[in-house]
Structures are given as C-alpha cells and as structure tokens.
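Lecture notes, unit on protein representations.

Consider one protein chain, 196 amino acids long.
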Amino acid sequence: MRILALCGSLRLRSSNRALLLAAQKHAPEGMDVTIFESIRDLPHFDPDIDGPERDPEDRPEDVLRLRRALATSDAMLISTPEYAHGLPGSLKNALDWLVSDPIMVGKPVALIYGSTGDANYAQEDLKEVLTTMSAVVVSDAIVSVPAVRSKIDDNGRVSDPQLALQIETALRNLAAFVSRGRTRSGHHQDDDVALA
C-alpha cells in the first residue's frame, strides 16, 4: 500500500517533516510512506497552464511528477504548520495544482500535526480544501500532537511510546479504510469518515 506524504513546511528540520519521518518508521507492514520532496519546486499555480483545453501532459515537469506520484498512491498523509491562521502558501499551491485532477476524487487522506491546544485554523482550512476537492478525510486517521518537539527529534525518532502507538494506529486505520474502499469497487464511504 503506497501513501504519498506532503509536508506543509519547507524547513528541513521542521516538526511537521519529523512527524512524516516518524510515520515512515511506524508504518504497518506492507505500507510504504513516501514524502514528496519537490513541493518547493512547484511553480505558482496558473489556470492558463492548467486549463481543460490543454493536453494533460503539457504541464510543468514538477507538476506532472506530483500528479504521477499521487496516481500511484492509495492515499495521502499531510502534515502542516499554521501560518497567519491559515495554510502555508507552498502547501496550498500544491493542492491548487491537484484541484482539476480527477485522481483526487475519493482519495483517502490522513492528517498528523503538532498542536498548541488552541484552535487550529490551518487544519480546518485544510479539511475544507480537501473536501472541496472531493477527497475523503479519514476521521480516525487524524493525529494531533501536543508539545510535539518534546516527543520527537528531527530524524523522526519518537521518544513518547504513546505517540508512536497513535501514529501506528492512525496508519492502520487509514490502511483499513483503503482496503474497505477496494472491496466496495472504489467507493470510499463509511460511517467513520469526516468530510468537514
């Protein structure tokens, strides 16, 4: 099972990237979590370049790389910080390039992020954007991590056993959701799914 991971922070040593590295380490057997490393290389989204009248392959190479990676993935995993009560521009730009791609329809998505305990505007924005794109945010594959820096290092090594278990459980829940969707001929609908 292939999972495409997107990090909303461009900082190499960000806690969001560390969480994705931890997800790689704690993924259940048979699951491959791949971080898309070229989010910083994506050009600014341009509707004139991405218009329906254009050949689907007539896009910037980095955009095609993102779409191909998504097309060969069973689900997505996103970790992002909050900037000015919203999504970082780099992550929003990546999602903008995917809006018109039908591969997003019904794509299961898991979220993992550091939390301060206050309202998290970025996560609500992200859920709204993903829902608008017809992706499916899997509610039992969402992990909020308070005091994240005290529980994980830059290389994704988790010092808190409870956090390690939370990550593994969320990924198992994501895998189970993907498997149920396969048995239902690609329909990703279930009672434990949040679309908000």
